[in-house]
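Good morning C.,

I know you're traveling, so I'll keep this short. The sequence:
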Amino acid sequence: MLFARKSLFKLHNGVGLGIFVVVLVSALTGAVLSFRAQLAEPPPRAPILADHVPLETIIAKAEATGDGSPATDIQLALEPEAAYLVWLDDDAETEVYLDGHGEVLQTREGRGRLTRILFRIHTGELFGVVGQGLMVAAALGLCLLAWSGVGMWRSRRRAKQAGRGRAS
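The tokens, ready to paste straight into the viewer:
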């Protein structure tokens, strides 16, 4: 074995203690984000229409609602009473809900919403490059924990097997 079990144990403990808080925050925010649909305000209902305008018209009307920022994402209306959802690339992270004729049903700011804040904490984005660096370091630390854990397990296993071989 390249490293002694004692060295691997010290490395394992040090890394584990070093990344504990960051990994805990990431795990908790990830667990809460798993239920983001239950946390969010329900989307508005759209009237049931026989025919819908082209998607380009829906996008153009959504973009006209905001400050002229382009649309970044679109969620299609999959049910008759569901609204189209268009996300705009503006500072407020605006969400525009439209019916099949392109009429605006509701607009929401996504920037200050709970799930958006939790996502920014989860990715480290809330704290800028330093926060993102911490999240990357924690992820790499988890890889190091797995590697050192396997190394310690193999070391113990070899020691047990060597002990059995001598006893025979």
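Safe travels,
E.
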